[in-house]
Protein 1
Amino acid sequence: MKPFDYVAPTTLDEAVHALAGNPAARVLAGGTDLLAQLKGGRRETPLVVDVKRIPDLLSIRMEEGGLRLGAAVPCIRIATNPDVRAQYPALAEVASLIGGTAIQGRASIGGNLCNAAPSADAVPLLIVLSAVARVAGPGGIREIAVEDFCVAPGKNALGEGEFLVDLFLPKPAAGFKAHYLRFIPRNEMDIAVVGVGVSATVTDGQITTARLALASVAPTPLFVREVTEALVGKAPSAEAIAGAAALAEAAAKPISDMRAPAEYRRHLCGVLSRRALTAVLQ
Ligand SMILES: Cc1cc2nc3c(=O)[nH]c(=O)nc-3n(C[C@H](O)[C@H](O)[C@H](O)COP(=O)(O)OP(=O)(O)OC[C@H]3O[C@@H](n4cnc5c(N)ncnc54)[C@H](O)[C@@H]3O)c2cc1C
């Protein structure tokens, strides 16, 4: 690993200042991706800006309209937070499937998103929970919908000097459910061959919201908007679910690699989408 400078700001302004004019600086949250990349020589940086001493990035707060989740909160705090478990159970579940106990003590959902891996487990779920990223930088604060955050493998929508402060997840309406399912060859500590996040609201026997997003089948996590159009206004039924799962399968643009051939991934998209939709619609 090449040497780098290290700073640990304690306020948002200090972090903006530290990142200003240094486009190659890297933000450090849990370091479970970044340190492996630096040690393996896949990334180099002259400066690491550790954001774990900034209170805004470490808080889990229920606000009137939803949940504000600090970008650097480690997964173990998310998985065990009583408010998260009660109101966003799927988020608690996804936090508890990233890595194992040691990784969960460090890894953040913000880091999972900013790392912009196509296989990131939390991102499809954040998309179907309609999460919005709040970002700070030299131009002030701005918001980015999570479905627009990852733009290419390992690249996100952050501009020069910007960093993720927190994620806002709207309060779930009555009848809302969300679920994330992944296929991995081992029981844990593996990269998703395919991941599927789904959410839906059923009101008076009719689907009023529906979202589906996929991991590991495109250069970025993939929001399948056609599923929303296909399901909203329908009654939950096996036929509606099968139709939506077929749309997810058709939307996938997988590649073949050492983990799985493209055709197998595409098939899994249909299978997992059907199972995840069944879980939220029945
Ligand atoms: C053994 C092991 C098992 C794993 N298992 C899984 C798994 O099951 N599922 C999965 O999805 N991932 C897994 N991972 C990958 C990793 O743990 C996750 O992606 C994790 O959520 C990254 O969070 P972090 O806080 O450690 O990010 P870091 O490593 O600190 O950062 C990751 C990237 O995001 C940037 N970044 C971090 N925070 C910010 C911010 N606030 N603003 C701007 N940029 C930022 C960093 O500069 C870096 O480029 C695993 C990793 C290991 C080592």
Protein 2
Amino acid sequence: MQQNVSETSSLSIIVVGASGDLAVKKIFPALFALFCRKLLPASFSCYGYARTPMTDEQFRELLMSRLNCRYTPGESECRMYMEDFLKHCFYTSGHYDSKEDFEALQTLLKRHEPADTPLTRLFYLSIPPFLFLPAAQSLHDAGLAEELPGRKTCRVVVEKPFGRDRESSDALTRGLAQVFTEPQTYRIDHYLGKEVIQNLMVLRFANLIFEPLWNRNNIDYVRICWSEDIGAEGRAGYFDHYGIIRDVMQNHLLQMLALVTMEEPLNLDPENVRNEKVKALRAVRPVRYEDIVVGQYTAADYEGQAQKGYLQEEGVPPDSITPTYAAAVLKVRNRRWDGVPFLMSAGKGLNHRRTEIHIVFRQVPGNIFAGPSATPHPNNLVIRVQPDAGISLNIMTKVPGLRVTLQETELNLSYAAAFAGEIPDAYESLLLDVVKGDKSLFIRADELEAAWDIFTPVLRDLESCRVQPQPYLFGSGGPRSADALAALHNATWE
Ligand SMILES: NC(=O)c1ccc[n+]([C@@H]2O[C@H](COP(=O)([O-])OP(=O)(O)OC[C@H]3O[C@@H](n4cnc5c(N)ncnc54)[C@H](OP(=O)(O)O)[C@@H]3O)[C@@H](O)[C@H]2O)c1
């Protein structure tokens, strides 16, 4: 059902770093989608801010090239919506550490913001992380982030990565807290906005059949895997500073792990949900050196094309030890999960693009079906995050016929087939939550601390000892030693 957020308040969305990839490809298209679905207040304006000089018209042209008509089929109607939306978009250029440039932005905002209605200002820091603090400080110095009780509310959205380790993350949290309070701060992990991830709590807590089995007595192991069949490409400079553990595992994959392992919250109050996630993350033992395998892709022919190795990517130092692949085994030390291995892998330059969670159940005890064609396979519940969002459950079935032959078959829920209509993009869902002030799907400071505590020690070991990542061919399944790691825990990656 369509819902107007608030007819009576006014909204200013300020995207800092508006010339960038994320702003143009994700943030503005998501805002346009909310506009088309009448989910933004009638009085709203979007302001782009970055150093690149652009007029409003040039900025609108840039945005126009990436808006799409998912919610407004029909070319002429869509064009009308786009033109209408773009009339609400403005641009001003400036430096991220310049109080004067941000004061010019403040003047522009004041020109458009109605004086007589309650106002929400939403600042989206879509800039490289080293600019978060200078930009926040300039917003503060120029008076842009000042709140007026009952009249003006300010919120800030910060993109990951939130630091490089526990220490730098804490420093970032402290620095941002000088300008924005914790309740004003929305740390975004766009995986939490994905439909299938949002469905995890529903799957677990709105169905009777899973929860009684959701524990160490019935689950053999859990696998959370993320892979891409592309390399670091245009982002290699950025990527080399972070690597796959910080870029994917510490945030996206740990968030999935938290949702799989957490206890049922008291209700859906954002703080109650996040309390349970923090408890789940706090129960995870920090990853040790012997629990992880790291790799780096090398040049190879893949699908008829010569692919560069990571060390040949532009912006990557020739002696880089940054992992493009990591596989780890995590342990959750609590009554529900003790002894269950959580296998986690993330890699670029692999042979497929896929994000999935596998809940692998234990073998059925005391098999009454004799013979090799009658051995039950363990059930496997698969939550497919991308590309083909869905949920499937492998079950054993008798093959129709005169003999008892068992076969593994799949109950498959494909989102595309089951749900009519467009599935919202993660950024649409998350931006709407920021507009509404709902923080359930955003990372709280203590959640971030708990997530960094899991990976910071092993990152330090890998980097201080300059551990060489194991080479794997672009387009392969990753380093073979990951299989040995899984085998140590009687598990596999397939
Ligand atoms: N792109 C994605 O899909 C994605 C996904 C998840 C998270 N993120 C995070 O979202 C944020 C924005 O991502 P992005 O891909 O849009 O970044 P980006 O394109 O590299 O940077 C955004 C803007 O920041 C300014 N900028 C970039 N490098 C700068 C530098 N060295 N000094 C000063 N200004 C600089 C540029 O604008 P001007 O030159 O015009 O000032 C650029 O257009 C980052 O924190 C990133 O880690 C991005």
